[in-house]
Amino acid sequence: MNRKKIKFSILLIFGCLFHISSIHAQERLSLELAVQTALENNYDIMLNKNEVEQAKNNVNRANAGMLPIITGNLSTNNTVSNTKQTLSSGVLQERNGAKNTNLVYGPVLNWQVFDGFQMFARYDRLKELENLGEANFKLAVQTTLADVINNYYDLVQQQQQIKALRGALEISRIRLRNSESRYTIGKAAKLEVLAASVDLNTDTTNLLRQIDQYRNTKIKLNELLARDINTDFSVSDTIIIGSSLLLTELQNSAAQLNPSLQSALINKRISEINLREVKANRYPGINLNTGYNFNRSTSELGFARNSVGRGLNYGLTASINIFNGHLQKRAEKNASLQIQNNQLQYEKLNQSITSQLSSLFQTYQTNLQLVKLERQNLEVARQNMDITLEKFRLGSVAPLEFREAQRNYIDANARYTNAQFEAKLAEVALMQLSGRLNLQ
User: Fold this and answer.
1) Distance set, CA 89 to CA 92, 212, 236, 304 (Å)
2) Domain range holding 87?
3) What's the domain count of the chain?
4) Cα separation of 109 and 287, whole Å?
5) How far is Cα 32 from Cα 76, in angstroms, rounded to an integer?
6) pLDDT by residue (tens digit) across 147-197?
């Protein structure tokens, strides 16, 4: 029964090895291609891009109310009535079912020529809304770019983990085979074979779980790229970490390029424009109107049986708010308070970004040191594993000591890859906050 379990474990091992070896036969997805695909297909980017186009379309003088409005109007009225009229001459006229019609049509122009400069404020607000849309689009691009890079390098570090677990699995196979041989010739107890079998199954389970996580991360990256989630691919085998970042440069760059800070500044400017719009209500509004009308009316009873007229009409309308229950004063005060709130929001966000940059930079430097340390630890663990494996083949190392060396190697590899990945995450976050994230 134990032999059947062992054979089953070996089949699982070969299945895992086949899966890993097939990775190398797949088309390799480079980070550059992943980013390019995301920029072209990602739904968040496409949605924000359309919103930017909408904001651009809205920036025109007509939308701000600067241009006149010309309409073509037509109205017709028809009546049927029973009429009885006594004329001034004393003549009585009476008609049942008398029909009267009136038709008026023609172009009409309305133009608000002055509204307290509100139209100019509206036009400025439309331009600022376009800038806000572009800032939000940049934020979406930076966020997507960070997500793609992070997921890509997550796959790289998981791939390294799988490689280490595969090596550990191969060592466990050698250990089991050696233990079985020793047990056959009577140099080892059954307990040693059972322990080797359990450790082999444990390593197989760890590898299968890591492969499952690797597949799930692939699905997530495919989702970010907005393509078929079952698309298979392989990634690079190295994590490239920049080591020349300076905190002062990052802080200066964030003040100029961070999309969230830019949005906060734009919102403040929009609130200032809103105050101008509110204050415009203190001024009079002047409207011009003109039109050219055609008029035709008919009446079956009365002095004029048929009337046709045409002509130009024009006029001017002016109005000013004299008193509205102090609503104007309240509106101006609220608009001023909104400016203060947006200023506070900007300062709060600026402080938060500065704090995040300082904290992340410290984490980034620490992880760079950990990468160097864990690289050395991994080399020591690898040498120890090689020496212990050779001694195990010669029978001069106890199984527990062998397993401990194997665990140390696996743990050292995991710590090294994790340190690389964490350093890369910190680097990407720093570049994203500074507003200059690009391919590293």
Assistant:
1) 9, 107, 108, 16
2) 2-434
3) 1
4) 10
5) 67
6) 999 999 999 999 999 999 998 899 889 889 888 888 888 877 888 899 889
